[in-house]
Amino acid sequence: MKTSLIASAALLALIPLGAVAQDLTLTISVYAFAQDDFKTLVYDPFEKQCGCKLVVETGNSVERLAKMEANKANPVVDMAVVSMADALSASRKGLVEKIDPSKLTNFAKLYDLAKDPNGDGMSVGYTFYATSIAYRSDKMKIDTWADLLKPEYVGHVAFPNVTTNQGPPALYMLGLALGKDTPDLKGPIEAVGEKKDDIVTFYEKSSQLIQLMQQEEIWAAPIGRFSWAGFTKLDLPVAWATPKEGQTGGMNVMVVTKGSKNQDLALQFMDFWLSTDIQTKLAEKLIDSPANKDVKVSEAAANNLTYGEDTAKSLKLIPSAAALDNRDAWLKEWNDKVGQ
Fold first, then answer.
1. Domain 25-128+250-313 identical in fold to domain 130-248+320-338
2. Cβ(87)–Cβ(58) below 8 Å
3. Domain edges within the chain
4. DSSP-based three-state secondary structure for 220
């Protein structure tokens, strides 16, 4: 028996540590966007560092959250990246675990709005974007979100449909400007409805705005900063507005699955993603705007990102609870008043 144990120990000693480490597998659920770049900049380097294997699942938020819920009793995903509102939805359904900031060495480097976006300790922001107004600076002046509905401007405006990512945030800021900032968005939806015949279009995709601006059919539209690069390439004086009410936008966050057997490894991966080095590489590639305040990027990259402490502080994001609790009401009110 003693000889057998010695032989077994000797055999184990011959097995490379990497072979044992490869048994560690972390399954992550992410957006399908820019996955080739994520593999090069994030996934492969982390696998090399941790000696583990990453399994990457992609899809839209609805599909990915549904899978997490279907496997609640026996999770198949260890960590996911979702929107703020989806993170709160997952939290309400008991799908995610509270995050211990002490296990994230880069937590202190995050902008304040990214440290605990929903105020429940269940998520950490890794990227965000601003939403403001792209406008023809030679045709109009934007001091407030309410300027979009001015008689002299409204006939040259494209407004996002309420079903798009930019719709509710734009309505939220319009409501602030009009002094009608209740979570049901009834005030701004009614105001838009009164001008619906003047507004050029209620757009579904920001890509269609470039052509409309180029053809001078529109002078202004609320857009996400990730769409801004296309406007800067137009041979027209297009500016990014800084209305007195501020800018709005959105944030994507990281969550750890409740019941995951790899929670520590999931936190290691989150911390790696939040590091200054990785966030800088993603920012320079114009993939994600950095949530890490220590990130420094080139002027060219900064012009196409939601970047800098002043910008981060100016963002007024729709509270996730308001979004979850009012989505159906927003759509009904929009259909009643705007009819799109």
1. yes
2. no
3. 25-128+250-313, 130-248+320-338
4. strand
Q: Please list the residues that pair with 249 across neighbouring strands.
A: 130
The backbone torsions φ and ψ at residue 16, rounded to the nearest 5 degrees and listed phi first, read -60, 145
> What pLDDT is attached to residue 302?
93
Domain 130-248+320-338 has CATH 3.40.190.10: yes
Strand segments (E) across 142-283: 158-160, 201-203, 220-224, 238-240, 248-257
Q: Which residues of the chain have pLDDT under 70?
A: 1-22, 340
> Which CB contacts under 8 angstroms, 24+ apart, belong to 291-297?
291/110, 291/111, 291/114, 291/125, 291/126, 291/127, 291/128, 291/251, 292/106, 292/109, 292/110, 293/109, 293/110, 293/111, 294/109
CB atoms inside a 10 Å sphere around CB 335? 12
Q: Which residue matches tokens 């009401």? A: 329
Query: What would the pLDDT profile of 30-46 be if each residue is shown by its tens digit?
Result: 999 899 999 999 999 99
Compute the distance between CA of residue 257 and CA of residue 210 in angstroms, rounded to an integer.
Answer: 40
| pLDDT in the model for residue 340 | 58
pTM > 0.70: yes or no: yes
> Whole-angstrom Cα distance, residue 291 to residue 129?
10
- The CATH number of the structural domain formed by 25-128+250-313 is 3.40.190.10
Paired sense of beta strands 96-97 and 124-136, if any? unpaired
Task: Determine the Cα–Cα distance for residues 321 and 309; give it in Å rounded to an integer.
Answer: 25
